[in-house]
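Troubleshooting log. The previous structure file for this entry was overwritten by mistake, so regenerating from the original sequence record. Sequence copied from the archived sheet and checked twice against the printout by T.R.
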Amino acid sequence: MPVPVPQQRAVSAAETSHGADLTLLVIENDPAGTFTVPELPAAAGTRVRIRTARNLTEADRLLTDDVDCILLDLALPTGSEARSAPAEGADELATLKHVLRIAPRHAVLALTAEDDAELAAEAVRVGAQDYLFRGELDGRLLSRAISYAVERKRADVAQHQLTESRLRAQENARLERGLLPTPLLEGSDLRFAARYRPGRSRALLGGDFYDTVRTPDGTVHAMIGDVCGHGPDEAALGVELRIAWRALTLAGLCGDELLSTLQQVLEHERESEEIFATLCTVDIAPDGRRAGLCLAGHPAPLLARHGGAALLPYEDGGPALGLLPRNALPQALRAGDTPWPRRQVDLGGSWSLMMYTDGLIEGRVGRDCTQRLGQDGMVAMINRQLAQGLTGEDLLEAAVTQVRELNGGELTDDVAVLLLDRDQEHIRRQGLNANRGRSIPRPRPEPASPTASANPASAQRPPL
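Regenerated output below.
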């Protein structure tokens, strides 16, 4: 026998404008007709519409997206739908669990008798928002319970979504941190520092990339690059290019051979032919006094020595990776042309080499914010900071902070800055300290021949 639906008074449009209508699905089978849904008052302009279902099959048909709350009688006989659920057997809450599975985003109220308080509490523990006793049910209590259950379900869903969002953010952060480079400089006298600031909001990784490795011959290789664009696809392509550069460098490639191979990687991995990447590579000789420089559409590095900081020559730079037509590069290499010439640079004994992406020099300056900082402005800024005695991490932090201040806020482009420096006096002191702690063995005399033993005057002296 279906549950009788009470007649509800008509609600005016003015009343319904103050609150949203709610739809209640009642799942109950009462052949004796002893259960009726009390008339629900339209509190605060909210009208409750009622649908009834006598079994789970009918409930599944009536359970549409506009249903806000389900009132389930726990005494409803367990149908074949609930019994087909995995390994529930004679569970008293099998029907409730089935409803929770088919309606994961709906609020559920459990209805039971007064002497089943323990079962009602277990229903809430399983997943129902609240429980009601059959004998105490009235319109006002039911209306309040429906509103409470709906709001609690919304809060639970929002909290669940927030938790999932936080877990995804933490997972992405761990992934992005794992993709950032770890310099391989073991055995080198050079000191390393870097700063990285992606332009994307709440991101750890952008289209800029850098890396530094030391090969077995003692040469230190460093590079910095920039993929055009700021999205996650550009960040992924930057990671691919960085890993490819490291693998090719450790395999012994350099100069044109390395850059032409990276261009092939870029051509195969980019999403469109408009995507390109700028690159600057430096290979520093084992003695730390000389370096080879290759530029592929990238700003020239900054070299600081005792006389101040200045840009390295950049007139011989080649095009950015991805700008040459596919057939132009092989033809140029066969003809002996050099798309990316390697320039030899004299570094000296003590120096600091700063490599950077254009995000550092394209920030706005001035009151009207119409001018860019540019390379000249960056050189002047670095010279002022060097005069203040800043070096290493402190120098990079001060540089990025001042660029942001000159821009009047956060920079929209990715920023990557890498610093390698060599202090000849520090290296000399380290060598002296190492020698002081090392015992110098005394030379042992060569064994004397029988003739020498007979004639002491002719005995050989030990080598000095």
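Confidence is low (pLDDT under 50) at residues 1-19, 85-89, 442-464. Archived copy saved in two places this time.
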